[in-house]
Amino acid sequence: MEKIRNLSLKKTILLYFVISLTAAFLLSGFTVHFARNMQNKIWEKYIDYADYTDVFQQYGKKYEIEISRPNQSQMNRLDHHLSEMCDFMETYSVLIFSIVGSVAAVFFFYKNKLKTPLQELKDASQMIANNELDFHVSYENKDEMGTLCKEFEMMRSALADNNRKMWRMIDDEKALRNAIAHDIRSPLSILRGYQEMLLEFVSAESIKTEDVIDILQTGMYQIDRIEHFTENMRKMSHLEQRELQCSEIELSELAKKIEAEAAMLSRKESKLCKVER
Questions:
Q1: How many domains does the chain have?
Q2: What is the pLDDT of residue 228?
Q3: Which of 39, 141, 152, 209 is 20 to 30 A removed from 266 (C-alpha atoms)?
Q4: pLDDT at 240 over 80
Q5: Same structural domain for residues 178 and 252?
Q6: Of 95, 114, 133, at which residue does a domain stop?
């Protein structure tokens, strides 16, 4: 049964037609034989037994005597219709059973070999159209339709992988945008604070030259940070590709930079920031 189920489509339809046509010829032979016997019984009602007795006496049993067909006028209406029906069955029974057998072969071929995989592919196509990829095409026969379903399952799997990669790329892009926004916002806020400080104290002429130089140097440091960050962002497409660059720095210098930046950021928000060494 397993071997028959895994036959190719061409061999399966050929097998179904051979079986159906063989059954059709057997049934038609039985029908012809039955119709002929029934017709002879009808005709026997209208024979002249005296003529047949003379023939038997003359020739004995050397010859087979066929019953002649009575005229329509000799038979009653029912016998005439039955005789005509027997003629019809003798003439067309082979054709009728062959057509019925062919239709039955096509029906069973569709039901056993095409209906299930076609329904699987139809449902799978509908789910893909609805962007639902969490399913499996599970037709297991090893015929052409089974191969087609396996190819469809491979395509679904590839679509699901591409869909996951696409969402991962979207998430990476969001993380990258957030990182860019975060890493640029801090130096820009510091630059803005220093600019506001310069405008405030320069207009009041209450700032020393050394303080101006210190502010400008700090501003250049923040500009260098932005340029370095922008160059890194230009070279990479994922946040994971960002290389960690390490360099030695004195703790006092690091604390000083953190304190300066924190003081500027906290000044804008009216907060107090203190760095303890």
A1: 3
A2: 74
A3: 209
A4: no
A5: no
A6: 114
Place of tokens 């019925």: 100
Domain that holds residue 22: 2-114
Model pTM score: 0.57
Q: Is the dihedral of CA 187, 193, 194, 195 positive or negative?
A: positive
Question: If we measure between CA atoms, which residue out of 93, 88, 47 comes closest to residue 71?
Answer: 47
The answer to whether residues 65 and 12 belong to one domain is yes
Cα–Cα distances (Å) from 204 to 35, 211, 270, in that order, read: 127, 14, 22
Over residues 44-66, the pLDDT tens digits come to: 777 766 655 655 556 555 555 56
- The helix or strand, by DSSP H or E, that contains position 262, with its residue range, turns out to be helix 251-268
10 Å CB burial of residue 108 (0-12, 13-18, 19+) is middle
For residue 240, the 8-state DSSP code is G
Q: Is residue 157 part of a domain?
A: no
- Map tokens 């059973």 to a residue: 97
- Terminal-to-terminal C-alpha distance of the chain: 84
* Helical pair 251-268 and 144-204, crossing angle rounded to 10 deg: 80
Q: What is the CA radius of gyration of the chain?
A: 49
For 242, the token pair is: 């960002």
Indicate whether 154 belongs to any domain.
no
110 in the same domain as 6: yes
Alpha carbon distance 191, 193 (integer Å) = 5
- Helix (H) or strand (E) holding 146, with range, is helix 144-204
Query: For residue 38, what are its two tokens?
Result: 């029934």
Are 25 and 74 members of one domain? yes
User: Quick one: 224 and 251 in the same domain?
Assistant: no
What's the CA gap between 61 and 55, in Å, rounded?
9
Q: What pLDDT was estimated at residue 9? A: 85
259/245 Cα distance (integer angstroms): 22
Nearest CA to 102 out of 49, 47, 23 is that of 23
